[in-house]
Each structure stands twice: as structure tokens, then as C-alpha cells.
Amino acid sequence: MLSSIPGELGGLGKVQILRLDGNQLTGTIPEALGALSELKELLMHHNKLTGSIPGVLRGLGKLEQLWLNGNQLSGSIPGELGGLGKVQILRLDGNQLTGTIPEALGALSELKNLYMNDNKLTGSIPGVLGGLGKLEELWVNGNQLSGSIPGELGGLGKVQTLRLDGNQLTGSIPGVLGALGKLEGLGLSGNALSGPIPKALGALSKLEILVINDNKLTGSIPHEFGALRNLKTLKIDSNSLTGGPTRGESLDSWRARLRQQEQATEREHPTAENPAVRTSSSTQGDKPGNPDGATTEPISGSSREADMDHMTQVQI
Questions:
Q1: Using an 8 Å Cβ cutoff, are 208 and 287 in contact?
Q2: CA pair distance 87, 57, nearest whole angstrom
Q3: Which of 195, 202, 312, 174 shows the shortest CA–CA distance to 265?
Q4: Radius of gyration of the chain (CA)
Q5: Are 82 and 105 in contact (CB under 8 A)?
Q6: What is the pLDDT tens value at each position of the chain, 316 positions in all?
Q7: What is the helix (H) or strand (E) element at residue 254, kind and residue range?
Q8: Disordered: where is this region (predicted)?
């Protein structure tokens, strides 16, 4: 049985899939693997690999999947990974990576799943990630990221799960997130976000899970939330919010009350723009199963076989 990855594997010039996952492999990732020019899948997750991620992996021009999660890798994420032009799945989660998220990752135009959660990453979330038009999953939770949520993330038109929870993010929740029409899970809990909840989030018609607890949010829960018919899990506790369900009030009754309040407001102001469909950054202030092997728990309650017209979990 191998105890480390032999550099001689770099001589397998025609190999397209290399799976070394789920072993007890130790040591570092050999730079010789950067010579595997035909490689499409490199899976080394769930081992005990240490050291840094070799920048020479950028030479894997045909690579579509790179799984390095669940190891003990350290150092920064090499910007050279931005040269993996065909990669669709990039998993770096569950390591000990430090430093900032390289802006070079914004060049990964084919990327669908990006997991960098449960590391020790610092700095801000690069706005260039909002240009990843094919991205469906973005997980950066469980780090030490700071600064505000970039409004550019509102350009992730295909994203289904957006997890920014468990960081040190500040500022308000950008109203442009209301433009994420395919979003099913939004996790923002455990930060220091402030200000009101944007009314524009009421336009997220596919949203099933909204977790924004443990922040510094203020104001009322928007009436527009009454339109979130697919919402099943709502966690808004440990903020300074008002307008939640009253004692003994069912969730269905609460949502109906929100809809009635919104309709009353529209009757009083018939010419007013509906803030639930606004998507520009001016609206500021007005999903998700767990990926295989991720060390953070899923946002919770994501069963999609349940009746989608009822919320089943709520924390106020």
C-alpha cells in the first residue's frame, strides 16, 4: 500500500483519470503530476496530504475536475489555478489554506462548482467571481473573510447555492442578490452584516433555505417575503429584526399576513416601483445539500420532496 504519492506517476502520459482519494496518503503533492497533459480528473481528496498546492498543476490543460478537499494542505491558493481553463469542479475545502482568494480564479469560465470552505482564508471576496457565468455552487463559508459582500455576485445567474456564512463580513446585504433567479440556498449567518434585509430578496422565487442569523441586521422583515412560496427553512434569530411570526402564529398565517401587508402598501402607493424586482445595488439598505466530504454542516432542511408551499423550519 502506498504511503505517499510517488512522483513516477507523472510518467503516465496518457492517463485521463487519476483517483487516489480515500486513502491515508501522506506527504506532499508531487510537482511531477503537472506533466499529465491528458488528465481530465484528478481526485486526491480525503487523505492526509500536507504542504502547498503546486502551481505547476496549471499545466493540466484538459483538467475538468480537481478534488483536493479533506486534507491538511497549507499555504495560499496559487493563482496559477486560474489557468485551468476547462475545469468545472474545483474543491479545496477542508484544508488549512491561508491567504486571500486569488482574483485569477475569475478566469475559470467553465467552472460550475467552487468549494473553498473550511479553511483559514482572509481578505475580501473578489468581485471578479461574479463573472463566473456557469457557476452553480459557491461555498466560501467557515473562513476568516472580511469586508463587504461584493455586488458583482448578483451576476451569478446560474448559482443555486451561495454560502458566505461563518466569516467576518460587514456592511449590508446587497439588494442585487435578489437577481439570482435560480438560487435555492443562501447562507449569510455568523457574520457582522448590518442594516435592513433588502426587499429585493422577496424576488427569489426558488429559494428554499435562507439562513441569516447571528448578524447585526435591523429593521422589519420585508413584506415581500410573503411571496417566497418555496421557502422551507428560515433562520433570522440573533439579530435586531421585527415583523416575525407572533406567538402561536403559524408560518402559513404569517406569510399570508405579509402578503396582505404588501398588497395594502401597493394600494396606497399604486405607482411605486415594486422593490421585490429591483436588482441594482441601490436596493441596499431598503441551497443546498452538503457537498461530498465537506466539513461544514449543510445549511439545513433541504429536502425537496416535501411540500414546497410550506416552511418547515423557522428561527426568529
A1: yes
A2: 12
A3: 202
A4: 21
A5: yes
A6: 679 999 999 999 999 999 999 999 999 999 999 999 999 999 999 999 999 999 999 999 999 999 999 999 999 999 999 999 999 999 999 999 999 999 999 999 999 999 999 999 999 999 999 999 999 999 999 999 999 999 999 999 999 999 999 999 999 999 999 999 999 999 999 999 999 999 999 999 999 999 999 999 999 999 888 889 898 888 888 999 998 766 666 667 777 888 887 777 777 777 544 444 333 333 333 333 444 444 444 444 333 333 333 445 666 6
A7: helix 251-268
A8: 258-316
169 Cβ contact list (under 8 Å, min separation 6): 125, 145, 146, 147, 148, 149, 188, 191, 192, 193
Separation of alpha carbons 74 and 84, rounded Å: 20
Closest CA relative to residue 70, chosen from 43, 101, 99, 48: 48
Is 43 found in the same domain as 87? yes
Same domain, 151 and 180: yes
Q: Which amino acid is at 271?
A: T
CATH number at residue 242: 3.80.10.10
Cα 172 to Cα 217: distance, rounded to the nearest angstrom: 8
Total of domains in the chain: 2
Same domain, 160 and 104: no
Grid coordinates given for 188: 449569510
Query: Domain containing 253: what range?
Result: 141-290+310-316
At 155, the amino acid letter reads G
Closest to 206 measured CA to CA, from 189, 182, 222: 182
In a shared domain, residues 286 and 187: yes
* Cα separation, 291 vs 277, whole angstroms: 31
Q: Is residue 6 situated within a structural domain?
A: no
* pTM of the predicted protein model: 0.85
Q: Does 2 map to a domain?
A: no
- Specify whether 211 is located in the same domain as 316: yes
Residue type, 122: T
